[in-house]
Amino acid sequence: MRPARCLVIAALAAGLLSPAAAQAEPSRTTQKTSAITLISGDKVVVGERGELVRVEGRPGMQFAQYVQDDHQYVVPADAVDAVGQDRVDKRFFDITSLHAYGYTDDKIDRIPLLDNGLRAAGAVPKEDAAQQWTARRTGALRAGKLWLDGKSQISLTESVPMVGAPAAWQSGFDGTGVTVAVLDTGYDQKHPELAGVVSVSKDFTPSGIQDDIGHGTHVAATIAGRGGQYAGVAKGASLAVGRVCEASYCFDSAVIAGMEWAAREVGAEVVNMSLGGDQSDGTDPLSRKVEELTAETGALFVVAAGNSGTFRKVSSPAVADSALAVANLTKQGAVEEMSSRGPRLGDYAVKPDIAAPGTDIVAARAENTLWEHAVDDLHARLTGTSMATPHVAGAAAVLAQRNPSWTAAELKAHLMATVKPVADSPPSVGTGLLDVGRAVTQQVRASTGSLSFGLLEWPHTKTFTKTITYSNSGADPVSLSLQHNLGTDFAVPSSVTVPARGSAAVDVVLDPRKGNGTFFGHVKASGAGIELTTSVGAYVQEERHALTLSMIGRDGKPVPNEFAVVVNMTTREASVLSIRPDGTGSARLPVADYAVLSRIDELTPNYDWFVPVAATEVAGRVSLAADVSVTLDARQGKQIGAELPERDSVVWYRDAQLRVPFAPGKISGVASIIDGRVPLYGLSFGGPLPELTYDSGLKGGQPLVSVPGGFPVRYYESSKYLPPGEHRLDVAERGSDVRGKLALVRTAGEDVYPVAQAMKDAGAVAVLWAGPVPFGYDEQTAIPVIAAAEHQVAVTPAKLTLRAIAGSPVSYTLFLPHKGSLPFGVKKFRHSELARVKARYHTSGADGSVNQRNNPVVGGAIGVTLDERLAAPAERTEYFTPGTWFQEGFDGRAFGGGDDPITTSWAHVDPVTFQAGGNYERTNLRAVTSPRLGGASLVPWADGGGVERAGDLITTRISPFGGAGWVENWRQTGGGYVELFRDGASLGFSDVRRGSFHAPARDGRYKLVLDASRESLALSTNVKTTWEFSASADGKLPLLEVGYSVPVDLRNSGKAGAPMPVKFTATRQAGKATVRSLQAYASFDDGVTWAPVKSVVPPGGKAGGFVSLRVVAADANGNTVDQTVLRAYRLR
């Protein structure tokens, strides 16, 4: 498995305590979801654009969910300190970046790491992430920072003269004798414009040095191509080409290796990096490597600023102090819309540094690449800061030839100072447009290209001074007029005289007492034939005061290692305030009213997040106009709770979301899941919070395992169950004789599976687990594992009676939305105020389990998530609070035909609205399973959606294995295809679930064939459907969908040798259809022979066998369907 990557920057693409904490609401747009496993083992589900859908965290874990610099973060409570103290790379919890990198669970199964940010250091298997996180959090993180191996993105006839290259050539300087390293996608070894240009090359990827992308060849030729009309800026320089990028991405580890090779081994004077990762504050691994190699070797790194198009988006490693960061101008001299703007994250340093043309740049095209951008066989037209950067790298080579003794800092400063003016500010263009012609001829220099005053924290009591030193290598003194556009907060002399072969200093003075905000502008020095420009920037912080929080538990002791989300009620920006080990935390924040949201957990010594001793939700308001200290004393909290109608039923767990709206579609707050056994309280302070929402979901029923008259227990989520009945067992500590006993395992966090196996091998009947409970996997534990709160078994009991049931005959799925305050008091539910649902869960025949997920629908989107694993097959009564609910889930062992836990995931097509006192029925996973054209309205990532035309494109979104009212969510084991024909000619093949075909909109007879199989599942092992239809008009096409009604039992079986009444239907996905004919057939030998069927499948087959079905139907318009389902249901 490959490690993380960097993005190639062409138009082909702070700490926790900082503004903009928010969470995106789930989207209803058509999309497909992906899961991302975090380094902590928690899972986050995102949409196809990376938007947050939901968090599936470790039991009991709290999560800070917020948006920072347009990136969505989900940080578990036990990572807040490590991220805030810069011991863990926050990109591990940056959902936006992880999705962009392609680090979703369907694409990689390991999380790639960097060793202290410098070398690839292996990867964490996602299935082991939770266990390894516990070890890292408690030990390894103290040794150094844990970095993600992230990714960067690979981001001339008019442009070369635009930057003054011909003038430099006329002066005799074209880069001859200078080596420029190009770290990119390789180069076309046969391109005539690069013949003899590349002196050395090396591949740091598995792809080979030959450029199969085209980006690297284009960049290389812009620097030093010998193309006559398309000559590069430094047409005399030689190139060292290092391939560090695959496709459009470049792994950090490969980029770092390429940087070291270019600077240390090759000795390149200039290194071009038309690539970049995320926006950064300059402390990331790539930026640190730029600083290290510049100081060590003197190489100048010229780096693309990025193509993110908004402020504070300059990417890594362009943000490094020593890097020369390049913005993109059009050939008309305007800033290109997608060019990333500064300033730098964190300290507001001036970035980018300089601008160059990067829009519609024509340069060398690698063979068989860039077809859509081709100008001719040898050239392509591209846009991006990737194209601007090689202009500057070439200019640096020209200037290095002119001044071979200059350092990287001197080259950078002079290129920045000798620019052509651009009517824009430093965060967009740096100093201005590159002018290498002036750079090689002008004798007066500036010591720096930019002055960054950076972030000046409030209060402001003094002035700050930065100095520009002008040097004159000429024989005569030079008088310079000084002008600036920085405003009255800055003072700059009006002129300066620079002596012959000497220097003169100019002080730029900022008085922050005159006003606050961001200040950016230029200081321009001009004289006879001389123009020098320096960028200046500062952020003068607004008035701020300290907000200090102290947390005290219900036991009167300080509560350490928590966090609070603090929301500015004016701007709705949020910060995450970390609580230190002494139970206090503080932050300096702007004057405003704030909402303080948190949950105080009194944890056991081993940090059992799911079963703390007690938990207190916190929601309060603070007015910050001076330093303020607030004590959050859980002892002042009031009870929050719920009582279920049945005496034998209990709340299993609560999913709570304490939030304040941030902006449309975004929120900030605290989300957590907590065991229903934990006493829950609420604490409010400081006045009303009308904007507050507290959405709480409860899941409950009869406990599957209990201690009669004793403390509460529960099964580990993937535990094997005890046989139903009472089990009176002796208790023995792990390490003693546990044969025939209940083994008590005290733990601070271990993998359950090997412990359960070891206890089974030692003869234990079951395990009593006292301590944090990690994630479960698909397979069951070797023996039953029953979890107890560690404080409940501080003293080992001699004996323990466990009462077990196979499944709760009743369940409660309750949603309690509350606005404006916390819902104090105990809510006592009555059956009359709930909806009653008779629910049936079918299986393929084997006993197993079903994981069910119910979501209330709030404002058209999915709300809290309430999961449950229940034994199947099952029939039971379920109660819901009134409102609209959506259900999905997955069925593993219950649906498998073999020993492996094969999984099918399913979703009901439409949500259901329940009324108080109403009676309803719901059936899940009942045979017959066959192709479905309709999609699930609230989970558009599910399979299905239909077949439709839009212009010349026909798209197919079909769930090959669905049922009455439900469709699949994701792919099962198996394969298949769809093939589209028009007038007998094939238009191609596509994926069985999602396909697209080019089919010009004209009359014709179409045939769509779907063939899908899932041999490892017991039923519907193969489905084949042929549709014939017309398809000239836009919209849904007139395909017929076959429906089946077969009265199978809960194991999806009928009685062998007995007739089976059946009903078949054919409906059209678009409009009403008059069915002209429908003929059905049945087979007892997997389709070898068929018998016609009308309303009854005739007696036949043997117990243990299967019945296959075939339906052929046509409507009055000539649209037809022929569908065969092998092993549609089984016989008992």
Name the overall outline: globular
What CATH architecture label of the largest domain applies?
3-Layer(aba) Sandwich
Beta strands, count: 80
Which class do the helix and strand fractions yield?
mainly beta
CATH topology of the largest domain: Rossmann fold
InterPro entries: Peptidase_S8/S53_dom, Peptidase_S8/S53_dom_sf, Peptidase_S8_Ser-AS, Peptidase_S8_subtilisin-like, Peptidase_S8_subtilisin-rel
Pfam families: Peptidase_S8 (PF00082)
Keywords: Hydrolase, Protease, Serine protease, Signal
GO molecular function, one term: serine-type endopeptidase activity
Word description of this protein:
- This protein is mainly beta.
- The chain folds into six domains: 6-149, no CATH class; 154-441, Rossmann fold, CATH 3.40.50; 444-540, Immunoglobulins (Immunoglobulin-like); 544-698, Immunoglobulin-like; 705-804, Glucose Oxidase, domain 1; 930-1131, no CATH class.
- Strand 62 (946-950) and strand 63 form a beta hairpin.
- The radius of gyration is 34 Å and the shape is globular.
- The model is unreliable at 1-31 and 893-902 (pLDDT under 50).
- Residues 175-421 form the Peptidase S8/S53 domain.
- InterPro entries: Peptidase_S8/S53_dom, Peptidase_S8/S53_dom_sf, Peptidase_S8_Ser-AS, Peptidase_S8_subtilisin-like, Peptidase_S8_subtilisin-rel.
- One of its GO terms (molecular function) is serine-type endopeptidase activity.
